[in-house]
Structures
1.
Amino acid sequence: MLKILIVEDDSQLATTLKYLVEDNPRYRVVAIADDADSAIAAAEQHDPDIALLDLHLARGSTGFPVAVRLAELNVPVLFVSGKAPSFAMPDLALGCLMKPFTAEDVHRSLAMAEDMLRGRETLRPKLPHNLTLYEQTDVHHIEQAHTEHQGFIPSRPSLKTRLEHWISGYQH
């Protein structure tokens, strides 16, 4: 059984998502959080296998810092958003499921995420049309290329800095 944390500030949507997820007996929602602090507390308390994380949360916060903190707790993330990020972020999430979605979209997305987490070759030929999976191998190749430059050590703080700049609208 896959334990799932839902991080969504719209309580009606969070409840609907919980019912959609638990429509499949292989999945169980262990907690619902509506902001960064409650998401981290729920992750620490319930040790979920994956988090479904909205990118726009309550009190003006975003899901990006939550994804960083969840990664530190070894909780993989699948973004759930009405507006997908303009670029892939495989160091933060497995992918992004776009709203609106159906129960079938949610179940297929979770099955794909579970296959990725378990290192299994997926047997599902059809991805939901509103799911984008991020290629995990791209990050490995980028980090490997950077380590060839003497003195470069990729780290989570550099990821946080990149995200903070992106969120604040800073462009390189």
Note: Residues 13 and 34 are 11 Å apart (CA to CA).
2.
Amino acid sequence: MMKLFTPLVVATAIFSSVAIATPSPHIVGATLGYGTQSFKAQNGDQADGGDNMTADLYYRYMFNNYIGIDSGILFGTGGVVSALFDATLNDVKDIHYKGIRSALYAQFPVSSGNSFYAKLGANAHRVEYTINKEDQSNSGVGLYGAAGWQYRFDSGIGLNAEYQYIPMPRLDVKGVSVGLNYRF
């Protein structure tokens, strides 16, 4: 009887430890934001690009509770004020961008569910715009940075608010975003 009982106790201990495993390292999410953009002309002049609306869809892999890597698709276009009032300088209109990004993600938990975080990395993008009634585009590589706050529920759903800064060779984007993510 003891020979049958010992493997049963060992198997129960192994399966019990699996049930108390750490949270999954996989997170998917999206953010929507609003901010400002400034456009840099080829001659170096800087023009006010007006306001902008941004979106970001991402996947994050957490190496531990503090460090991860965050990659996604980002895009943006002129905002409400730009659309209503056609706010342009130097004949630059209809500025929009799209691209991919990857960043190192670091978070600092401050209480159960609450944490502050920062992202720092790079983006590859394409900026399209109209200048002097002629459609133009520019592709390149730039930085990507964000800092914010997040609350994660026990269900795996997280809510966040962040400040994003995306300097590109032709366009600087700054704004505030809110997001929703899920740890699965």
Note: The helical segments are 2-19, 80-85.
